[in-house]
Amino acid sequence: MKAHHLTTAAALGLFACAFAPTIRSQNTADAAKPAAAKTVDDTLNEKAIRLEEIEFTEKRTSALTQAPTESRLDVVQPQSVIDISTITNSIAPSADYTMVANIAPSVTTVQANGPGLSEAKNILRGFSDGQYNVTYDGIPFSDNNSFSHHSTSYFPAKIIGRMTVDRGPGTASTIGEATFGGTIAMQSKDPRTVAEVNIGAHHSHEQQMRMFAPLFEKHQVNFVLSGHEHNYQRTQPLRFAPRDTAKAKNLNSKDRLIAGEFTIDRNFDGERTTRAEGVIYITTGAGGKYLYDPEFNNAPEKWSLPEDGNVRYVAQMVSDRHSLTIFDVERDEVLLRQIDERGNEIDRIRLTAPTGDITKASVARRG
User: Fold this and answer.
1) Residue 83 and residue 364: Cα distance in Å, rounded?
2) Strands 121-124 and 107-110: what pairing?
3) CA-CA distance, 304 to 313, in Å (whole number)?
4) Are 139 and 105 in contact (CB under 8 A)?
5) pLDDT tens sequence across 175-215
6) With contact defined as beta carbons under 8 Å apart, do 134 and 141 qualify?
7) How far apart are CA 123 and CA 129, in angstroms?
8) pTM of the predicted protein model
9) 203: closest CA among 11, 7, 2, 4?
10) What's the pLDDT tens digit per position in 250-301?
C-alpha cells in the first residue's frame, strides 16, 4: 500500500402507510340496535387501507466497514484483524491492549480483581498468558524473566492503530516467544494523512486535509497525491473553499467532515482539453494490499457523497485491481498513466501548464 490516496457514499429506500376510513351506511333499524362488540376482522373490513410513499435516505455501509474484525482469505492459519475504526469507536482510549484483543474470536480477558482494578490477562485459544506471543510493530514484548505480559505497563488503546490476532503457531519466519499458542500483533497508528477528496467507504469522512486546498490553489499546485485508501481515484480539476472547519480538530474520531463549496472544471478531459482550472487529486492506494470498495468499480452513480451535496468530482475510480501511478514530465506537459498489475493502462490524462512550462508547476505529495 505504499502508493498515494483519496475517497465516500448513500442509499435510498421507500416505506410507509396511512389509513383512511370509508363511510358505511346503516338503516334506521340497524342504528336502533345496540352496538355489538367488534372483532378484529370487523374492524379491518371497515377500513380501506391506502399506502403512501415516504422517501428517506440513509448512508450506505457495508459488512466490511461494520464488522468488528476482518478475515483474510490468503493466510495460512485463522486470523482476525481489528482495524483503527473499531478500536476508535468501540474501545475507550484508556483501555489496554487486552481489551482490544478481546474483540477477536477465541480470545477472552480475565481481570482477577475486577474491571479496572488490576492488570488483565488474555486467554488465546485456551492458552494462558505466557503461552502465546505478543508483539508491537513486530517487536516481541514480555517480562525479562518469563514469557508473560503486564497490561498495566504498556500499550493503551489510544496508541494502537491495528491489531492482528493469529490463532496458530505461525511459520518459521514468525518472530517472538511462545509462538506455539498464537500471536497478538499490535501496530502503531499510521502517521500518514488521507486525501481530502475521495468517495470510498473507509476514509471518506476523514477530510481534515481539505484545510490545505486554498494553499494548493494559491501556489498553483497541479496534482495532489495521497494514499491510505486501497484503490485508485482521480478527480476533475477542482477548487474547494472550506466553510465549516469545526470537526478538523477531532483527532481521535473518523468524523472529520469539512463542509465547503466546490468549483469543478467540467471542460477538462485530459485528451482534447488539457489545461486545467483547479487541482487534480489522485488517490493511488492500490499498490499491493487488499482492495477497498470493489462494488464502486464501473459504477459512476456511486461516485458522490451526500455530505458533499452529491457533487460529482470523481472522474475515474478503479477498485477491482492493484495498480501504480506513473508521471511522464516534459517541459510543457505532463502525462499521467495508471498501470494495473498486468501492465494494462487503466487511466490516462495529459495536462498542459498554463505557463507553457510544466516544470514551473507543482506537485504536492502526501501518503
Assistant:
1) 28
2) antiparallel
3) 7
4) no
5) 888 888 999 999 887 654 444 555 565 666 566 778 788 88
6) yes
7) 6
8) 0.48
9) 7
10) 666 666 677 788 899 999 999 999 999 999 999 888 887 778 888 888 888 8
